[in-house]
Design brief:
The complex is a heterodimer of chains A (about 110) and B (about 110). Chain A has about 110 residues and is mainly beta. Helices cover about 0% and strands about 45% of the residues of chain A. In chain A, the strands form three sheets. In chain A, strands 2, 5, 6, 9, 10 and 11 form a six-stranded mixed beta sheet that branches. A three-stranded antiparallel beta sheet of chain A has the order 3-8-7, with no helix packed on it. In chain A, strand 5 and strand 6 form a beta hairpin. Chain B is mainly beta and about 110 residues long. Chain B is built from no helices and eleven strands. The chains are: A mainly beta (about 110), B mainly beta (about 110). Chains A and B meet through strand 6 and strand 10 of A and strand 5 and strand 10 of B.
Chain lengths: ~110, ~110
């Protein structure tokens, strides 16, 4: 069975500081990995997916199969990045999404 | 396109009652997934329906059930409510194709007293 672990519940940084939100997964096959974000009073929405290999709002995430990790990074945090972030895994094209428990990112001015 | 809608947005029930939640997906989407969101457990997958058939199922007791209609709208039912069922219930729709991005609704906040 697949599992997603987000080891921290809260990360608080100052504006302009680098951010790394950790995500580790366990799955024996080749998973599809995602980061979802939920801003205050907004819906959960897709931030990025590993197959796209793109930067969204300055965030990037690289799939490291050796370390089974998919950490989310941003070099300079902005106050508007404050939100709840969830890492998610899908084991196959038609399989369910398995979410981690999420991490709250707080960016202070 | 209109987004995913969920009704009702808030519900208060008492233990032992049953409840039905509704989800209308984005037009053209054939897949609807349901999740339970709680502060302690985060987002937990309940089930997914695709073209009126349950395609995936999570690890929830049989009190949790769902269905999907021919217009892709979906309902979720919880019978014999327990205090621990208090949560935000989210549904998400997707095209069901390979890229399969899920679009989430605003959720239904269920409180069981």
């Amino acid at each position: 069975a697949q599992r997603v672990t987000q080891p921290e519940k809260l990360l608080s940084v100052f504006k302009g500081a680098p951010v790394e939100l950790k995500c580790n997964y366990s799955y024996s096959g080749s998973p599809e990995l995602f980061w979802y974000v939920q801003y205050s009073r907004q819906r959960l929405q897709l931030l990025l997916r590993h197959i796209s290999r793109e930067s969204i709002k300055g965030f990037t995430a690289d799939l490291n199969k050796g370390e089974t990790s998919f950490h989310l990074k941003k070099p300079f945090a902005q106050e508007e990045d404050s939100a709840m972030y969830y890492c998610a895994l899908r084991a196959g094209a038609n399989s369910k999404l398995t979410f981690g428990k999420g991490i709250t990112l707080s960016v202070r001015p | 396109k209109a987004g995913v809608t969920q009704t009702p947005r808030y519900l208060i029930k008492t233990r032992g009652q049953q409840v039905t939640l509704s989800c209308s997906p984005i037009s053209g989407h054939r897949s609807v997934s349901w999740y339970q969101q709680t502060p302690g457990q985060g987002l937990q997958f309940l089930f997914e329906y695709f073209s009126e058939t349950q395609r995936n199922k999570g690890n929830f007791p049989g009190r949790f059930s769902g269905r999907q209609f021919s217009n892709s709208r979906s309902e979720m039912n919880v019978s014999t409510l327990e205090l621990g069922d208090s949560a935000l219930y989210l549904c998400a729709s997707s095209s069901g194709t390979v890229l399969n991005e899920q679009f989430f609704g605003p959720g239904t906040r269920l409180t069981v007293l």
